[in-house]
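User: Can you predict the 3D structure for this chain?
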Amino acid sequence: MTVLEAVAIFAAGIVAGTINTVVGSGTLFTFPVLLAFGYAPVTANVSNTIGLVPGSASGAIGYRRELVGQERRLALLASFSVCGGIIGAILLLTLPASAFKDIVPVFIVIALVLIIFQTRINRLLEARGSGRGERAGPLALAGVFAGGIYGGYFGAAQGIMVLAILGLSIDDRLQRLNALKVVMTGAVNLVSGIVFVFAAHVAWAPAGLIAGGSVLGGVLGARIGRRLSPQVLRGVIVVVGIVAIVRLLT
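Assistant: Here is the predicted structure, written as structure tokens:
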């Protein structure tokens, strides 16, 4: 790994940590960067998942005020997310690498569609009201379980998907739901990462660089991320995602 590659991976980690906290699609930055530097798709995904865990932790700390009073709800939702994440990680390791290369472009397209229509999704979520949170019902639990499977297999736009599920199934303020999302997606990355450490090949150097960058990004995302232009962020993410699709298909 050259110095330039190390700097690029670290910078991608900062961007990913920031966007994961604010939006939830940071993998679309780090994953293509690792592909561009010659890492195999599955290795890139595994290393990226592990690297982004510390960023979720720092983002959750930044959202600690929004998490107050949600401990029981979070524990229930996170348990379903974690179970899904374990299944997704096992699927990644048991399905052939060729299946990953075939499936992931579809996932990236889904992620990009979610990002493009994020404004409409946010309006829909905000329109559902701002009353005190209700208990998570079967729809929310089933949704976050499915989101966990997706995140364990490939985490791009997992946050957007989970936030949409929470907003459509639980009546609460969007920022409080976003705080739940940060913790839940981080938990999925954590359990998936634990599975990968023992059962997959991890490129530890890029994983460490992404981890360091994502910690800074998580802090930035919680503090100033809401000031960033969502139009610019979505535009950059879409471009990077298209590059990733082209890179996987060639």
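The two ends are 23 Å apart (CA to CA). The chain has a mean pLDDT of 82.
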